[in-house]
């Protein structure tokens, strides 16, 4: 029997069964109206476990796959009763590296509050291997010789000398997060941003899927060509 927190998929959206067996309707928005055998199997398994699909219930219910053959919703965020209460919203991301769009889940509660309090920028001590740092290292090592005889002591002395001879500096490092990309080429970063704009435009109904797929296909071909030039 379903308890008051368990939901299951139905033709008109999502229904919740109360402890007395009464059903309370809750709409789950989805742009994909396709119904097939695989989908029914998935829903039956979710019903058995008391799990539910969060796409369209706590956020967007849009397409998660955009390819040359068409569009569909085949990527899901699935949660049980306990996890459902911690999910604030589910959004479809705009990363364009794959035909499958990422699903970004925002959690609420103590864990998310603590994460917000963490410093976004951290201080880190690194070795200075600039031209000035190399000159400093050479000066510190010039004329030095290891006079120890025992191998273990000799290696320890050498490590200590190298450590002290290096010049170091403090550098500010931004905290890495999921979805972050480091682009060393301004040209390719710009291409990626343009493709993301095309995707957003299509999602708002102001563009076509074909336009986005074609641009993404051209970007992939150029990346392959660039890779062949580098590694051939």
UniProtKB/TrEMBL annotation:
InterPro entries in UniProt: Endo/exonu/phosph_ase_sf
Basic and acidic residues bias spans: 1-12, 19-31, 207-232
Top-level lineage group: Eukaryota
UniProt-recorded name of the protein: Endonuclease/exonuclease/phosphatase domain-containing protein
Residue span of region Disordered: 1-32, 204-232
Organism: Habropoda laboriosa
